[in-house]
Amino acid sequence: MQNIRQILMMMCLAVSLACPALALSVPSDEVATFEEWEKAFNAWDGNRHKWKPPRMAPNKLPFPVDYRDWKVLSVSHREDRASVRVILGNNVAIRAARQKMYNPWPEGTLLVKVLWRQRRLPTWKESWVPSEIIGVATMYKDTEQFEDTLGWGFAFWATEKLELPEDFKADVQGCVKCHAPLKDSDYVFTVPAIFP
Fold first, then answer.
1. Measured distance CA(26)–CA(29) in Å, rounded
2. Are 54 and 163 in contact (CB under 8 A)?
3. Which end of the chain, N or C, is more open, meaning fewer C-beta atoms within 10 Å of its C-beta?
4. Residue 21: what pLDDT?
5. For residue 143, what is the enclosing H or E element?
6. Could you tell me if 111 and 87 are in contact, meaning their C-beta atoms sit under 8 angstroms apart?
């Protein structure tokens, strides 16, 4: 719970520390209201005891069920998608970021991006904070297994139900198309944030 609070506080304070997020089709570009957030939170809170690990992606990427315990790598705010995101990394990613060895990222790097619709904080109108969940996206570095997708395995589990897209292959090709111009940064938008 403490990690979640820290993540949310960081997102409130940092608006645009990372570059644009994964090329994902998100359901809405509209700003959420406090009432929508409260409804989404209550629905999530009332159903979380029923949570089961989501299905494995068709490209053999499992959902990283322990990602909530990972360290924060960066945050981002997408004005064009009216959303805020936190980017977490597995131990390989965090070690690479701390050693400035992320171009290229090492094999075994797993980046997880949690996406929320944005809303204004009623007590701080200038601040954008998370509302309901859009989904959880992953990028896994395995240049041999994912040779056809820039050396990265991509997956996106949508909404709080963490459902895979019906046309998974097309969704992944959207990721590849968006990330392909970023060859000079190992096809990754995220730049590790500075933690003083």
1. 8
2. yes
3. C
4. 35
5. none
6. yes
pLDDT at 77: 94
pLDDT over 60 (residue 119) = yes
Q: What pLDDT is attached to residue 25?
A: 39
Q: Is 137 exposed, middle or buried (CB count within 10 Å of its CB: 0-12, 13-18, 19+)? A: buried
Q: What does the alpha-carbon distance between residue 24 and residue 27 come to, in Å, rounded to a whole number?
A: 10
CB within 8 A of 79, min separation 6: which ones? none
Q: Which residues contact 47 (CB under 8 A, 6 or more apart)?
A: 160
What pTM value is reported for the model? 0.78
- All residues at 6 or more sequence positions from 136 whose CB lies less than 8 Å from its CB, including other chains: 63, 67, 112, 113, 114, 115, 156, 157, 162
CB 132 within 8 A of CB 14: no
Instruction: List the alpha helices (DSSP H) in the chain.
Output: 2-13, 34-47, 91-98, 168-179
pLDDT band per the 50, 70, 90 thresholds, residue 178: very high
Give pLDDT, residue 93: 98
Q: What is the mean pLDDT of residues 155-176?
A: 95
* Mean of pLDDT values over 86-97: 97
- Element of type H or E holding 1: none
Alpha-carbon span 186 to 143, nearest angstrom: 11
